[in-house]
Every structure is written in C-alpha cells, then in structure tokens.
UniProtKB/TrEMBL annotation:
Pfam families in the cross-refs: TPR_1, TPR_11, TPR_19
TPR repeat feature ranges: 390-423, 424-457, 458-491, 492-525, 526-559
Keywords: Membrane, Repeat, TPR repeat, Transmembrane, Transmembrane helix
Name of this protein: Flp pilus assembly protein TadD
Chain ranges passing through the membrane: 105-122, 128-152, 164-192, 204-223, 268-287, 294-315, 321-340
PANTHER family reported in the protein's UniProt record: PROTEIN O-MANNOSYL-TRANSFERASE TMTC4, PTHR44227
SMART domains: TPR (SM00028)
Annotated organism of origin: Tunturiibacter gelidiferens
PROSITE patterns: TPR (PS50005), TPR_REGION (PS50293)
Keyword Cytoplasm attributed: no
Length: 573
C-alpha cells in the first residue's frame, strides 16, 4: 500500500530535471566522474561552505551522501530520473522502517500503519524526496532507523550480530549527515517509553553506540571538518520551533530558501501564545504518559530531532528538509490524540478530522511535487512564502533565461540586485541577458558592477570583453582578455577572443599566435581552427589551411563557410 501511495504522490519526480543546487553538486561536478577524484574530494576532505547568512565559512563531511550520487552518476549518467528514483526508494524504505519500529514498540497495527502512510504523504517532506540534493536527510534517516531497530534487538536478545549492525548503522548515519548524532538520545527516549530495565545487554549496546560516535568524530577530526553553528537567541528558537510545527502540520506556502524568512527586529505577537500552547500540550502528554505514552513519545521525538536546527543557527537558518526525521514524531502524536477520548463519538470526530487532514496532505504534496518538476514554477511559488529572498529571485531569473524568456529574467535579476546590491553573480547574469538582447552598453555597465565586487571572475571578464568589443572599446576588451590569461594562461576562450579582436584590427600575426595557442590546446571550439585556416589561406600556406579546415568539419560538420573555402583552395591548386 505504501508503494502505491508513493507512486501516486511522486510519479512526476521521475521526469523532473536537476534543479537548484543539483546543477552545481551533480551536473557540473567533475568529482563524481571518476573514483580517484571522488576519493580525493569527498572521502579525504570535507566540503567547504561559505554563507552570507552568517558571514563565515564552515564545512560538512557526508561521504556516504556523495557516494550515493557517485553510484547514481555511474548508473544513470546525467539522467535525472534515476537519481529521483533513488530518493523515492529511500523515502519508501524509511516509511516501512518507521512502521517496523512502531510495531517493535508495541503500537497497534492500524495506528502504526496510519502513522507511516501519513508521514509518507507529508508535504514538508517533498524537499527531501523531490530534490536530489536533499537526499542526505533521507539517507541518514534510513541508518538512524536501522540502528534503533538493531539496538532494541541487541538489548532484548543480545548477540554480536545485532551489536555490529548497530555500530555500522550508527557509523553510516554519521557519515551521511550530522543528524546521526541523535541516535543515542532517540534510543534513550525509546527505552524510557518501554521502561527498559538496566541489563548487561543494555550497557554493551550503549557502549557500542558510544564507540561509533567516537569513530565518527575521529574521522571528522582527521579530515579537519570545521563546524559552523552558534547558539540561537530565545526569540529565534521560539520562532523556528513554531514555524517547524506549522510547516509540518499545515504548510500553505512552501519555499526552498528561507534564510530571509524571519526578521528578529519585528514583533511577533503570536509567538508567546504558540509557545504556551506547545508547553501545555507537552505538559499534558507528560501527565498522561502512563495511559498514552505515544503522545509524549511523539512530541519528545520531534523536540529531539528539531533541536539542532532550533537551538543552533546553521548556514541557512531554517529549511523544510530539516524537519524530515522530526516530522515522524508529530504524526505519531497526532494519531495518539485519537486514542485519548473515551467516547466513541468523539473518537470518530477526531478520526474524521485526521482523514480530512490526510486528504489535504495528498493535495498539497502532489502540487508541491509538480513545482519541483518545473524550476520556474518552483521558484515562483517559493517566492510566495519568502518574497524577500535574493537567492530565489536569482534562481527564478536563471530558470527563465534557460527557457528563453529573457525579458522576464531581466526583471528578476534587477529585483535580485534591489534586494542585495552585493551580489556579483546577479550583476554578471544581468549583463549576460543584456548581451543576448543586443543591449551592449547596458551589458557593459552590468559587468563593470560585477567586476567591482569580484574582479577575478573569469567568465565575467570574458563576457565583459565581448561587451566592450561590441561597443567599440577594443582596448578595454583587450585588457579584460589579458587579465583572464594572467589568471589562467591556458584559457582557450581568452586566446580565441583576443585572436578575433586582433583580426578585426588587421593584426594578422598577433591573431595567428592567439589562434595557434588555442589550437595547440585542442579546444573543441571551431572558431580558432577556421580563423587560423583563413589566415594561412591568405598567406598562401594552403596545406596548413586545408588541414585546419578538415578539423573544423570534424567539430562542425557541413559548415558552409568551411566547405566554400575548401572548394576555393582546390580551385587554386
């Protein structure tokens, strides 16, 4: 049943493209191409992250997440459907593992099944399931649940098989995502709920988890992981906690980027009321723990799993994917509420409300999955939740540019700059759009703004040179191309552009030198081969010209200009 449900919810994902961070982490990531580069980049070193949100850099170490992408790259190449299938399979497995864990904790069959089906269809989980780059949360959750099941079996039955399974699952969880550190507090919660007595097996199991945690930290220390977090203020923690509750239960507007969502300078009159309500609910659950342990267990599970993202501020601040594991607890608590009333009629009313909520979840999840299938729709709808996000406006503009809607992209890039004037990529992308529209003066101005903030950005220098050349400022263009060659002497595009510039200035010898360098670098751009062939043809070096024309036809078959020049060469022989 869970398999059928997940296919109904996520069938669009099989045809969804790479989007957002997928482009950098998968499509344009050469380190996923070979085993040697993968080991060097992701096993032996952490991944550095720089954040404008906090203003300092940190790093993460999630080699199993990257290994899963490496395997997908080997199997599927750049076919996004295969990667999405892996994400969907992980979500399905996690749902079934959660069901097994609840049954192991003696939750009745129907409530346990209801929890897992509801959790499977929660809208907030779409960011982890429908977004390939969100996989680390699902992968870590898989190992967390396997570890908890193995630990409970180790305590109950003993045996080194369960202890080894417990150790390796905990170790793998920690190498998938930092959330693996929550295994020990989650296990202690489960032991309290089932009132497990102290025993030798319990001590050995806890020692096993402690050893796994030590091993993880030893590996992280050896590769020099630099954490990035700070203690959040009470106001931030309260706002984040209330928002995660809202997003888990009733997410009207969803967004892939929420670093601009909260303004601590504004008043939040509802915050105190929300905190009081949650404290009262938690207090009631604690009071009723003997009669309804699932209610307290669910709320406590939620608090444990969401605490790292509430108590500590991280590189983004708030994100829907952070609630993936925590949301299991909320669903458990909601289902547990149905068992509280003694009156059958009231229970039916509560069950009816949950049924309506389930239907709404199905609707909201399918619409959000549809968003992930269309990048323009994804970013446009995300802006309904976080309209002040420069990153969302920038990514919307990029997606519109890819679709060919240049004027819409122009508006979004300008909106990005209005929200964040220190965004060099936005200025550079604005220049790219102006360049495509033939507005060379505006492109030139945009590139100058970008280079004022990032003077050594090679793509911007190249495009700025093109804009300069288009408005007749050839000396400025030459300066930009020469700057590229100072930064990267082997940059064939700069040599080609300089060669074209020199040809227009009738500096044939200088042009030939630049084209020759590009040809020696075996560039796949046919322009230097063609232009150097033309120069050879003009100087009477017909054999050299013919060889280069043939190379042009290999790179650009049936090129009319090349065929015409070859015919002219044959006539002169």
């Amino acid at each position: 049943m869970s398999g059928a449900l997940i296919l109904v919810l996520y069938w669009r994902s099989f045809t969804s493209p790479f989007v957002y961070d997928d482009l950098e982490q998968i499509v344009n990531n050469p380190n996923l191409s070979t085993w040697g580069s993968f080991v060097q980049r992701f096993l032996l070193h952490p991944v550095e992250l720089t954040t404008s949100f906090l203003g300092y850099a940190g790093s993460t170490y999630r080699p199993l997440f990257w290994f899963s992408l490496f395997i997908d790259r080997a199997l599927w190449g750049l076919d996004a459907g295969g990667y999405h299938a892996t994400n969907i399979a992980l979500h399905l497995i996690n749902s079934n593992l959660a069901f097994a864990l609840l049954r192991r904790l003696k939750m009745p069959l129907v409530p346990a099944a209801a929890v897992c089906l509801l959790w499977l269809s929660l809208p907030i989980n779409t960011e982890v399931v429908a977004w390939i780059s969100g996989r680390s949360y699902a992968l870590c959750t898989l190992f967390v649940l396997v570890c908890l099941l193995s630990a409970l079996n180790s305590i109950r039955h003993g045996g080194w098989t369960w202890r080894l399974a417990c150790f390796f699952a905990a170790f793998c969880a920690g190498l998938s995502h930092e959330l693996g550190i929550l295994i020990l507090p989650l296990l202690l919660l489960l032991l309290l709920l089932i009132e497990e007595q102290r025993s030798k097996n319990l001590s050995i199991t806890l020692a096993t988890l402690g050893l796994a945690a030590f091993a993880i930290e030893a590996v992280r220390f050896s590769v020099k992981v630099k954490s990035f977090s700070g203690i959040a203020s009470f106001k931030w923690a309260g706002l984040a906690l209330s928002k995660y509750l809202t997003l888990t239960i009733l997410p009207l507007h969803m967004s892939v980027e929420r670093s601009t969502f909260f303004s601590l300078g504004q008043s939040h009159p509802w915050l105190l009321a929300a905190i009081v309500c949650f404290v009262l609910a938690f207090g009631y659950a604690a009071f009723q723990r003997r009669n309804h342990p699932a209610l307290l267990g669910g709320l406590t599970w939620f608090l444990i799993c969401i605490a790292p993202f509430v108590v500590f501020t991280n590189y983004q601040g708030l994100a829907e994917r952070f609630a993936y594991l925590a949301s299991v607890g909320i669903v458990v608590a909601i289902i547990a509420v149905c068992s509280i009333p003694n009156q059958p009629r009231l229970r039916k009313v509560l069950a009816g409300i949950i049924a309506l909520w389930a239907v709404w979840n199905l609707y909201r999840t399918t619409t959000r999955v549809a968003d992930w299938a269309d990048p323009v729709q994804l970013f446009a709808h995300s802006l309904q939740a976080t309209p002040q996000s420069p990153s969302l406006h920038y990514n919307l503009a990029y997606s519109q540019k890819v679709k060919g809607d240049l004027h819409a992209a122009l508006d979004e890039y300008q909106r990005t700059i209005q929200l964040d004037s220190n965004y060099p990529h936005a200025y550079a992308s604005l220049g790219d759009v102006y360049l495509q529209l033939g507005s060379f003066g505006e492109a030139q101005a945009a590139y100058k703004q970008a280079l004022a903030q990032a003077p050594d950005d090679i793509p911007t220098l190249l495009n700025s040179g093109t804009a300069d050349q288009s408005v007749g400022e050839t000396s400025e263009a030459e300066t930009n191309y020469q700057r590229v060659l100072q930064l990267d002497p082997s940059n064939s595009a700069a040599h080609v552009n300089l060669g074209v510039l020199y040809m227009k200035e009738n500096r044939s010898n200088d042009a030939a030198k630049q084209f020759a360098v590009a040809v020696d670098q075996k560039t796949k751009d046919p322009i230097p081969y063609f232009n150097l062939a033309v120069l050879y043809q003009q100087s009477g070096q017909h054999d050299q010209a013919l060889a280069l024309y043939k190379r042009v036809l290999e790179l650009k078959p049936n090129d009319e200009d090349t065929l015409a020049n070859i015919k002219l060469l044959e006539q002169t022989h």
